[in-house]
């Protein structure tokens, strides 16, 4: 692979507040090989003058759903795989153009999509996926309406599923479903541990899965040297999930101070998803969201900003996530604008880079500008430590995007 030297750069390394200027970064074989405050010797390298602009790690979105092309998840079963894949290609391409060089698909993403990305068939960010979401009967990913008696989709007689999830009840079924998703290449396992606003039969306050079921799933993941992420909206579901071994909580919009302190003490992570909530409240009805879901959605929305304040005060480790569905995916960088009401630009930059890498169990490889990290880099025209809004423009302020050492956008040459 051709060597590339990025010269005259102001570098944010993913962690440090100080951003040294006049830096050079050598990239070869998909990795960063050298970061120096002096000119790098590489006679055969292609040299790019960054012009004093900010070079930083590519962004990481820790909560995406690549196939979720409609607000009604039941519609997606009828659309089938070709339609969902076409949507995923468009959505993932937009993510890359917006500066996201890594995404975690936390429900629905699968091995075929990951393989197509790895083989270069799809223009997309680096791709981690949780496979099918695990739900109990009547849980957040059981999309049957109350008048339906039977599951209509399944890959075997022992577990039923729809396009996004697997229904598992009892320890044995939870173990089997976990092992099956891990066999299919899932990088982690996602469970639903509270009710939600997008499913027909579970109120938000409802805790889901028993303690023995959650602990069984956690143990299976531990044996595979990976982790469990859990959909939790309420404080109670968040606390019990973390207590039972869940490593990463998704949403936590209704979290209270006591629970936030507990999460911080246990060293667990939280991935809030503000952009999804705000976009659904603003445009959900016109995009086809059933009117009877709006009350619950507004309850979560009205408390979500307070939840961010509570978690920041408690010192919870927070990563960047969006959870954008259907046509809302074009607002992927809006999360920066929403969170800036609570967090400093430095905190937001860490959330979108090095903290996400920690959850993915890729510290030092992703989310950093350091030797031996993957060469997933962006160049920002300006200083995001002073104006985080530079990253909230869907890539318009990015002069260079590099993924795995491959330049996918370049306005510098």
UniProtKB/TrEMBL annotation:
Transmembrane segments: none annotated. It comes from the Bacteria. Coiled coil: none annotated. It holds the Pfam family Amidohydro_1. Residues 54-408 form the Amidohydrolase-related domain. InterPro entries: Amidohydro-rel (IPR006680), Metal-dep_hydrolase_composite (IPR011059), Metal_Hydrolase (IPR032466), Metallo-dep_Hydrolase (IPR051781), OTAase-like (IPR057744). Gene3D superfamilies: Metal-dependent hydrolases, Urease, subunit C, domain 1. PANTHER family: ALPHA-D-RIBOSE 1-METHYLPHOSPHONATE 5-TRIPHOSPHATE DIPHOSPHATASE. This is Amidohydrolase family protein. It comes from Kribbella hippodromi.
């Amino acid at each position: 692979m051709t060597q590339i030297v990025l010269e005259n750069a102001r570098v944010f390394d993913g962690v440090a507040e100080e951003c040294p200027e006049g830096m050079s970064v050598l990239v070869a074989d998909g990795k960063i090989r050298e970061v120096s405050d002096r000119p790098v010797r590489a006679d055969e390298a292609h040299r790019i003058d960054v012009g004093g602009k900010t070079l930083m790690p590519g962004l990481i979105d820790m909560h995406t759903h690549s196939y979720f092309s409609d607000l009604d998840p039941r519609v997606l079963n009828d659309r089938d795989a070709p339609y969902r894949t076409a949507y995923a290609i468009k959505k993932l391409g937009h993510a890359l153009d917006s500066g996201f060089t890594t995404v975690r698909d936390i429900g629905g993403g699968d091995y075929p999509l990951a393989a197509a990305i790895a083989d270069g068939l799809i223009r997309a960010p680096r791709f981690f996926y949780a496979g099918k979401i695990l739900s109990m009967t009547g849980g957040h990913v059981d999309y049957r309406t109350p008048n339906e008696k039977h599951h209509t989709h399944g890959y075997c007689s022992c577990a039923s599923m729809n396009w996004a999830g697997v229904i598992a009840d009892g320890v044995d079924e939870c173990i089997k479903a976990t092992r099956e998703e891990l066999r299919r290449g899932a990088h982690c396992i996602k469970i639903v541990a509270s009710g939600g606003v997008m499913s027909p039969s579970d109120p938000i306050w409802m805790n889901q899965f028993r303690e023995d079921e959650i602990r069984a799933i956690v143990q299976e993941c531990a044996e595979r040297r990976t982790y469990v992420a859990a959909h939790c909206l309420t404080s109670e579901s968040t606390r019990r999930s973390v207590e039972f071994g869940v490593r990463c909580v998704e949403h936590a919009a209704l979290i209270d101070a006591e629970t936030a302190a507990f999460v911080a003490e246990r060293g667990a992570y939280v991935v809030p998803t503000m952009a999804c909530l705000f976009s659904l409240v603003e445009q959900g009805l016109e995009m086809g969201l059933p009117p009877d879901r709006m009350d619950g959605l507004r309850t979560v929305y009205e408390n979500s900003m307070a939840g961010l304040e509570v978690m920041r005060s408690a010192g919870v480790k927070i990563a960047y996530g969006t959870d954008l569905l259907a046509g809302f995916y074009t607002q992927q960088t809006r999360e920066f604008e929403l969170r800036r009401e609570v967090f400093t630009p430095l905190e937001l930059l860490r959330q979108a880079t090095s903290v996400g890498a920690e959850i993915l169990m890729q510290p030092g490889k992703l989310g950093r500008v350091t030797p031996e990290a993957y060469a997933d880099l962006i160049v920002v025209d300006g200083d995001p430590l002073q104006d985080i809004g530079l990253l909230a423009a869907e890539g318009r302020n990015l002069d260079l995007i590099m993924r795995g050492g491959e330049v996918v956008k370049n306005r510098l040459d």
